[in-house]
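The passage that follows is intended for readers who have already worked through the single-chain material. We present the inputs for a multi-component assembly, then the predicted structure in tokenized form, and finally a short commentary. You are encouraged to pause after the input and sketch how you expect the pieces to fit together before reading on.
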Amino acid sequence: MSQSICILGATGSIGQSTLKVVAEHPEKYSIFAVTGHSRIHELAQICKQYQPKVVVVPSNQVDTLQQLFKLHQIENIEILTDEAGLIQVAEHADVDIVMAAIIGGVGLLPTLAAVKAGKRVLLANKEALVMSGDLMLQAAKQHQALLLPVDSEHNAIFQCLPQNYLQIEKNGEPLLGVQQVLLTASGGPFIHHSLEQLKRVTPAQAVKHPNWSMGQKISVDSATLMNKGLELIEACHLFSIKEQFVTVVVHPQSIIHSMVQYVDGSTLAQMGNPDMCTPIAHALAWPERITTPVPPLDLFVHSQLDFQEPDLMRFPALKLARQAMQAGSLAPAILNAANEIAVAAFLNEKIQFLQIAQVVEHTLNHVQNSSAESIEKILHTDQVARHFATEYIAQLES
Ligand code: NAD
Ligand code: MG
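Having made your guess, compare it with the prediction:
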């Protein structure tokens, strides 16, 4: 029987890759709902091609979308709006699978709604998990949601674990003979830049990733290595593992997507061309496998694979994320909020590249960390941290 999908963030890079995979399997999957924030023309095209039952946009985009529907003769699609609309489609009774691919903290409540409705949730929106951590995992357990990693590294780790195991630690000790998780990082576009050169890099240079084609925010995160920091936190929560068992390995070719080392000396790696269609297809069909447009890996072309340690002097964001995970509680949410504000400021040319980590560090040092006992408290702290980071950026500018 065909499964019904809701794509939160259908107009984004992950959303588009998801549609590409789904288009190969019309007998297996149908699109129930899609959501978009700003690229309304693209969203209308998606509606025309995939004929969802529901579409969600910000209220101020409804008129534009309706005009486009009229223009392209698109009919019988219900339009819902804003966060309430996102939550409504994420938990809708007719939805089997939710692709959580909104960027940033705004994706938290819709993703959590999907988890609480017991869906198969394909998690791309790492910020949502970084912010909510244990609360998201507890909700998944309580409501029997299947939370599957789409982030290529976490999907790779999942593939390198014995079938059915997501938890690899109990009472602080690794389970299943796992010794260490090796989280690979491409190193981003500035891997060879000196500190002096890093000071002067532009947003246009930062969003040009050498291996992956991604949205702007995650591309900047990859350039600062904050993306790897967020992924470190993501891995700790997804696999219930302490941060000291997660080692970051810079691997510039992005062919190995991560590895798991076992006590017997085995290291298992998942390899493939860097294309998000592979982890998306894996999470969609797991435990089965489905085809994707991704060509098989040609190791005679990719004959050299390099590995090195990350340089925390040039890329301090990774160190800050590890410290936030060690501190626990609200620290990861504070880190994430400050980073979102700092990245937006960098993209708007208000601060320099190296100031992104500076803003995050300053915010982490000044916004009060305490226990993350509820989503309300996390969201409140997220707002406090955003406000603090914004004010600090204004000071830096003046
Ligand atoms: P993107 O910028 O290309 O797309 C973001 C999507 O979120 C768009 O559909 C946009 O409409 C929607 N969105 C943005 N702001 C919104 C708001 N305020 N309210 C509602 N919707 C909003 O981003 P992306 O690269 O596709 O990344 C999406 C998520 O997947 C991120 O959390 C990212 O970290 C993660 N991820 C992406 C990749 C990748 O290769 N792109 C890989 C791993 C993980
Ligand atoms: Mg990743």
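Commentary: The pocket of magnesium ion (ligand 2) is lined by residues 151-153, 231 (CB under 6 Å). DSSP finds 17 helices and 13 strands in the chain. How closely did your sketch match?
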